[in-house]
Design goal:
Elements lengths: L2 E3 L4 E3 L4 E19 L11 E2 L5 E2 L2 E2 L5 E9 L9 E7 L17 E6 L4 E6 L8 E10 L2 E11 L2 H8 L5 H17 L14 E2 L10 H5 L1 H4 L50 E2 L37 H43 L7 H39 L27 E8 L8 E6 L5 E5 L11 H22 L5 E7 L9 H6 L9 H25 L13 E7 L7 H13 L5 E7 L12 H5 L1 E4 L4 E5 L6 E5 L9 H15 L3
Parallel strand pairs: 1-10, 17-20, 17-21, 18-19, 19-20
Antiparallel strand pairs: 2-12, 3-4, 3-7, 3-8, 3-9, 5-6, 6-7, 8-11, 9-10, 11-12, 13-14, 15-16, 15-23, 22-23
Helix pairs in contact: 1-2, 5-6, 7-12, 9-10
Length: about 675
């Protein structure tokens, strides 16, 4: 029977392997500290938090979320640990609530591995506190108990950790806030909500009903990536708009919210997908699909089966539907495997706990039975996963060739018929995303246009685990930036998008050659400190003028020579050539530029700017981080899987990039004719 605790009440723990589930309704940070026999935290290595989520016997979430699962194995804790305190805190600097008074009362539960609730506690009467010790698990006379604490701190994590005796409390609190903010900045934002009348129901590629094992594990799928954030290893530090796949959605100039768990689709009801709206009325009926499949066979996929006003919008929504289908069917599979693993461990533990069954035929038979059940459950889950993935692969094979240039890969034949568009498309492809369960199933990573958030092509040393030397990484990063810039130029009507480049040291001359040779840059790449100051000065002045005109309702008062086209600034080798004034201007462009058509693309290693310390943290958080090599740093907005991002590439020996840039240049000279 579940014990409903009140503040100060305790309850014995029947098991030592537990989960602690947190539900808050809004994104919060969950962590835990280890305490000695006096309740003191001896060092930062005794604190589990999003930046360092794993300790012996303890694992917490890697990101802020509305729901968390923390895994605890009390037997695996060091002998010097006598207390585990569960901490909850509000994310700092992301525009959310600043105290728990603005939230519904959080609920914390201690459960066994099979989901049986041992004790629950609702944290009531919180007011100005921004951090709280919710529960503590403590050892008394060799037995473990749980106590409802509910001790809040208006001073946040720093005050809480100081109260627990940690000398480096403020430094650690700052690093936790930074890890959470970086995670939120990398999360994949879902598309904006549509009106109630403008929903899309996918039928052709909807995942099949899950087997019984998956149904039993369904509850676990609702909090993917919490106790064991991304099973099997770790969730992305979270996870841009792929922007999140970078897909688009919310105002990207702001840090996107963390992905929230959503209800798992079932076979009984279709899955509704929300997506951006261009009109307030319901869109027209999609075109007829192919004839229905024979009974018992999966639906035949067709390109453009989503709702939308145009084929472009239908394809955009269909890609998002495939993205969600893949996220959810993989979550169901992983949840089912977790459930099977947990049940096998329970059954084996039960066998080993009885001395009479540890040896002999009865024990061996029980072990074989447990393993056979596990294999059967995993097999059922794998069969369902393979069925759903095969259907999605079939759909991708139909959708990919139908994508327009802005959505298409560089290898698509659609580029050979490219002409400068008359209006901007609704989204742009920045690469692809895939999961390890099916690496050949790639989901286009689409971001909405116009860009609402800048891009950061990370050439950092942390990517050297890809067996690529630092110099090659920097070259690949600039190459990626050129491909992104070329796609943006090709997506806009003639002369409605301008690209500026700052290459203070001139180290990217060869990589930038395609843009320079084609003559599509607004001016030659700026070099040296004087060039940096000139470009930043002109762009910040443009932002100031447009902002004043918009706020004053005097758009006609803008100077006649002001270029009203969208502007993109590519910055290479930052902070080389930047003084303090230039750094301040760059931060200003990152924060204020997107709202008035000035966008930033950084090609940089964050460590190169480490001398600025936390001053530049808001800059990195304001940008969507991409990589020049495959990397699993992005997350979806539904279950928070770690998705591998694959940067765009041009097929070997292909001339398509040169041809597209030449056509862009020609359209500029002829006014789009």
């Amino acid at each position: 029977m579940t014990a409903e605790l009140v503040r100060g009440q305790n309850h014995p723990l029947p098991e030592t392997r537990l989960e602690i589930r947190v539900s808050a309704g809004k994104p919060i940070v969950a962590g835990a500290t280890l305490g000695d026999d006096r309740g003191q935290v001896r060092g930062v290595e005794w604190v589990a938090h999003p930046g360092s989520p794993t300790l012996p016997g303890l694992e917490v979430s890697r990101q802020a979320a509305a729901d968390h699962r923390l895994a605890v194995d009390l037997d695996a804790l060091p002998d010097t640990v006598h207390r585990v305190s569960v901490l909850l805190a509000l994310p700092v600097g992301v525009g959310g609530p600043v105290s728990f008074r603005a939230l519904a009362a959080p609920f914390v539960a201690v459960t066994a591995l099979d989901g049986t609730e041992v004790a629950g506690y609702t944290l009531t009467d919180l007011d100005t506190e921004s951090a709280v010790v919710a529960l503590e698990l403590y050892r008394r006379q060799g037995a473990w108990k749980v106590r409802a604490v509910g001790q809040g701190y208006a001073g946040g994590l720093a005050e809480m950790l100081t109260d627990q005796g940690l000398p480096e409390a403020r430094e650690l609190a700052a690093s936790i806030d930074d890890a959470v903010a970086r995670g939120l900045a990398r999360s994949v934002a879902a598309p904006p909500q549509r009106s109630a009348d403008d929903t899309h129901v996918r039928t052709g590629s909807q995942p099949q009903a899950q087997p019984q094992a998956q149904a039993q594990g369904q509850a676990q799928a609702q909090a993917q990536g919490q106790a064991t954030p991304d099973r099997p290893a770790a969730r992305p530090e979270q996870p841009g708009n792929p922007g999140q796949p970078g897909p688009a959605g919310r105002p990207i100039g702001d840090t996107p919210p963390p992905p929230q768990p959503a209800d798992q689709p079932s076979a009984a009801a279709p899955v509704d997908y929300t997506h951006p709206s261009r009109r307030t009325a319901a869109p027209p009926t999609p075109p007829p699909t192919v004839p229905p499949a024979p009974p018992g066979q999966p639906a035949r996929p067709v390109a453009g089966d989503a709702t939308g006003w145009s084929m472009e919008e239908r394809l955009y929504n269909q890609v998002w539907g495939m993205f969600e289908d893949l996220a959810r069917t993989t979550a169901a599979y992983r949840s089912a495997v977790d459930f099977a693993d947990s049940r096998r461990e329970q059954e084996l533990d039960k066998v080993l706990s009885d001395p009479r069954s540890r040896i002999g035929g009865a024990g061996d038979a029980a072990r074989q039975t447990a393993r056979a059940k596990h294999a059967d459950l995993v097999g059922q889950a794998k069969a369902a996963l393979d069925r759903d993935l095969d259907q999605l692969v079939a759909e991708a094979e139909v959708v990919e060739p139908a994508l327009p240039p802005a959505f298409a890969a560089w290898s698509s034949p659609v580029w050979h018929a490219y002409r400068a568009p008359m209006e901007i498309p609704m989204a742009l492809r920045l690469g692809d995303l895939h999961l390890p369960e099916r690496v050949d199933l790639r989901i286009p990573m689409l971001v909405r246009l116009p860009l609402e958030r800048g891009l950061w092509i990370d050439s950092g040393r942390e990517l050297t685990n890809h067996a690529t030397d630092a110099a090659t990484l920097r070259r690949l990063a600039v190459d990626s930036a050129v491909l992104h810039a070329a796609r943006l130029l090709a997506a806009y009507p003639a002369n409605e998008f301008q690209v500026h480049v700052i290459d203070a040291a001139g180290s990217a001359t060869s990589a930038l050659a395609p843009l320079v040779t084609a003559g599509v840059l607004a001016a030659p790449p700026a070099t040296g400190a004087a060039g940096v100051a000139d470009v930043l000065g002109r762009l910040t002045q443009r932002v100031d003028l447009v902002q004043m005109a918009v706020r004053g309702g005097a758009a006609d008062a803008l100077p006649p020579d002001l270029d009203t086209a969208e502007q993109l600034l590519i910055v290479n080798d930052f902070p080389h050539g930047f003084d303090d004034r230039a750094v301040t201007q760059l931060r200003y462009l990152a924060d204020e530029g997107p709202a008035v058509g000035v966008h930033l693309m950084m090609v940089a290693d964050r460590e190169d700017a480490a001398e600025y310390g936390p001053l530049l943290d808001p800059l990195w958080r304001a940008l969507l981080r991409l990589t020049p090599v495959p990397d699993d740093h992005l997350a979806d907005p539904w279950v928070g899987h770690a998705w591998t991002y694959d940067p765009p590439v041009v097929p070997p020996d292909s001339e398509i990039l040169r041809r597209i840039l030449d056509r862009v240049a020609t359209a500029r000279r002829t006014g789009g004719r």
